[in-house]
From TrEMBL:
It comes from Hymenobacter jejuensis. The chain crosses the membrane at residues 21-47, 67-94, 106-128, 134-157, 164-186, 192-209. InterPro entries: DUF6576 (IPR046483), Peptidase_S54_rhomboid_dom (IPR022764), Rhomboid-like_sf (IPR035952), Rhomboid_protease_S54 (IPR050925). It holds the Pfam family DUF6576. Residues 263-296 form the DUF6576 domain. Belongs to the peptidase S54 family. Keywords: Hydrolase, Membrane, Protease, Transmembrane, Transmembrane helix. One of its GO terms (molecular function) is serine-type endopeptidase activity. The keyword Oxidoreductase does not apply. GO terms for biological process: proteolysis. The lineage of its organism: Bacteria, Pseudomonadati, Bacteroidota, Cytophagia, Cytophagales. It is a multi-pass membrane protein. GO terms for cellular component: membrane. This is Rhomboid family intramembrane serine protease.
C-alpha cells in the first residue's frame, strides 16, 4: 500500500525528525482508536488496561512495574482536540528548533521534556501534601514534551514573531509565557497531573537551550541511546574509529568535499545575536555556520 510506503519513507530519512515525531503520535492515536472500536463491538473490556499499560501512573510503585511509561505516555492521546493542538504546536515551534538547532536537538528537547514532565508529575504526587492523599491517577499526552519545545524555541528566539488569527503578530516569548501561565492556573482544576507535566516540560525547555548556549548539550545521553537503538534495529555494526598520526596540515582552510564545523564559541555568539536581533540580522556567513553546526 502507498500509505505503508509513505510511512517507511518518512522513517528512512535521517533529516526528518519533526515529521517522524508527528507521525508516531498520529499512528499511536490511530491504533488506539482502532483497538477501542474493535473492543467495543466485540464486548472485550480491556481497553482501559491497555491505556494503563502505556500511560504514566502517579503511584511510584506502579511505575516500578511499568518504567517504560515515563516515555510512552508522551505519544498517547485521548480525543481529537487533544492531539490536534499538541501536534499543531509541535509543528509550529518544532520547525523553528529544527531549523536553528537541527533534528537531533529537536528530538533531545522532545524526549527530555517528556521525561522532565514525568519526573515532576510523579514527584508531586509523592511529596506535595495536597496531592499525596489524592486518588491514584494517570497522565498521558505529548503536552509536556511539546511545552519543552515551545519554551525552548522561545528561549532561543524570543523575538521571533508568529501571526496569530484575530490577534496579529505576537512574539513567541509572549506565547510561551501565556501557555505556561495557563498551565499554572489549571493546577487546581480537573487536569492537575497534566498541568504539572506541562510545567516540568517548560522548565526543561528553558534549561536545555540555556545550557546549549553555554556549550553543554544535556541531550547527549538521548543521542547515544538513539544511536544504539538505531544500530540495533538496522543490524549494522557500530564503527570503531582509530586515530592515527598524520602530517600537520592547515586546519583553518576547509578541505574539499567536507564540512568544517564551526567552533562552539562562534555558535554561541550567533545564537546570542539571534536572541537579540532575530535571524534576519545574521550575515550570510553566520547563517552558513549555523547550518553546518546543525548537521552535527
Amino acid at each position: 500500500m502507498s500509505i505503508v510506503n509513505d510511512i517507511r519513507t518518512a522513517f528512512s530519512r535521517r533529516d526528518n525528525a519533526l515529521n517522524q515525531l508527528l507521525l508516531i503520535n498520529v499512528l499511536v492515536f490511530a491504533v488506539l482508536i482502532l483497538i477501542r472500536a474493535i473492543f467495543y463491538f466485540t464486548g472485550i473490556g480491556l481497553y482501559d488496561d491497555i491505556l494503563r499499560f502505556i500511560a504514566l501512573p502517579s503511584n511510584p510503585v506502579a511505575l516500578m512495574y511499568r518504567p517504560w511509561t515515563v516515555l510512552t505516555y508522551a505519544f498517547v492521546h485521548e480525543g481529537f482536540l487533544h492531539i490536534l493542538f499538541n501536534l499543531l504546536n509541535l509543528y509550529w515551534f518544532g520547525s523553528l528548533v529544527r531549523e536553528y538547532l537541527g533534528d537531533r536537538k529537536l528530538v533531545n528537547l522532545y524526549i527530555l521534556g517528556a521525561l522532565a514532565g514525568a519526573f515532576l508529575f510523579v514527584l508531586s504526587y509523592s511529596f506535595v501534601p495536597v496531592l499525596q492523599h489524592a486518588p491514584a491517577t494517570i497522565v498521558l499526552g505529548a503536552s509536556g514534551a511539546v511545552m519543552a519545545v515551545i519554551v525552548g524555541a522561545a528561549t532561543l528566539l524570543p523575538d521571533y514573531t508568529f501571526n496569530l488569527i484575530f490577534i496579529g503578530p505576537v512574539k513567541i516569548k509572549y506565547i510561551a509565557l501565556a501557555v505556561v501561565l495557563i498551565s499554572l492556573a489549571g493546577v487546581d482544576g480537573g487536569n492537575t497531573g497534566g498541568e504539572i507535566a506541562h510545567i516540568g516540560g517548560a522548565m526543561l525547555g528553558f534549561l536545555y537551550v540555556r545550557q546549549l548556549q553555554r556549550g553543554r548539550d544535556l541531550g547527549r545521553p538521548v543521542q547515544a541511546v538513539g544511536d544504539w537503538v538505531g544500530a540495533l534495529l538496522s543490524g549494522r555494526p557500530r564503527l570503531r574509529v582509530t586515530h592515527r598520526s598524520r602530517p600537520a596540515e592547515d586546519t583553518t582552510a576547509p578541505r574539499k568535499g567536507k564540512l568544517v564545523k564551526p567552533e562552539q564559541e562562534e555558535i554561541d555568539l550567533i545564537l546570542d545575536k539571534i536572541s537579540r536581533s532575530g535571524y534576519e540580522s545574521l550575515s550570510k556567513e553566520e547563517k552558513q555556520k549555523l547550518f553546518r553546526a546543525s548537521q552535527k
